[in-house]
């Protein structure tokens, strides 16, 4: 009787993981705060959900904004663990000040001009279509890479001063899309991937890539905490994998050459 009781007690202690003096615990859950370009909202949210299902110890919290806004928040010390910007310039501004590390290029995109589907289709040249418009939605160039790329193209085409009075500025590329979808602007500069998600707009022109800097998305680590840094690096590697690539490609993103 006593032997059976002792054996049961010993098994209980072993089961609790303290027989050897070292208790066992479930892995602590790590929460990662990730700031990403607004144009990635749908794809990154879907990828994050897939990632969490396979990594139960990781919780991903995303916020989406213009890359210039993300850069500014990191420089000001906001508690952000990882970033994904829609321009090399914004990522470089962070890495140059040692505010981001382990960065690499991940995606490519195209700049297009969209129009509300209820409007009569424009069939002229890019220049004539823009001149016909009364209001043109464009991202704030200092905050929104898509607005910066659009400005570069307009300068190259010598249209920036001619069209300046028509501009309706937005805080991110999704707001540009919303302006056109709601009829508050005749045309708008967005990425091809943004145009694809809206049933209320159509692409009228693709902006020639030769008129602006290459559109590239860069990921980086901004946390200094060792545990969080390792977790962000692991997620960033996942973004290069087959599961994430499938989601990106379905949204019309193009994968950049990554190592």
Explain how this protein is built.
The protein is α/β, with parallel strands linked by helices. The chain contains eleven helices and eleven strands. The protein has helices at 2-15, 41-54, 67-75, 88-95, 126-132, 145-156, 160-163, 173-181, 192-197, 226-238, 242-250; strands at 30-37, 58-65, 82-85, 101-108, 111-116, 136-139, 167-170, 187-191, 201-206, 216-221, 254-255. Helix 2 (41-54) links the parallel strand 1 (30-37) and strand 2 (58-65). Helix 2 packs antiparallel against helix 11 and helix 3 (67-75) packs parallel to helix 4.
What's this model, at a glance?
This protein is of the alpha/beta class and about 260 residues long.
- Total helical segments: 11
How would you state the average pLDDT, rounded?
A: 90
Oligomeric state of the chains? single chain
The span between the termini is 65 Å
Low-confidence stretches: 1-26
Architecture blueprint of SSEs:
Blueprint: H1 2-15, E1 30-37, H2 41-54, E2 58-65, H3 67-75, E3 82-85, H4 88-95, E4 101-108, E5 111-116, H5 126-132, E6 136-139, H6 145-156, H7 160-163, E7 167-170, H8 173-181, E8 187-191, H9 192-197, E9 201-206, E10 216-221, H10 226-238, H11 242-250, E11 254-255
Parallel strand pairs: 1-2, 1-3, 6-7, 6-8
Antiparallel strand pairs: 3-10, 4-10, 4-11, 5-8, 5-9
Salient structural properties:
259 residues, 6-stranded mixed beta sheet, single chain, alpha/beta, 5-stranded mixed beta sheet, 24% strand, disordered N terminus
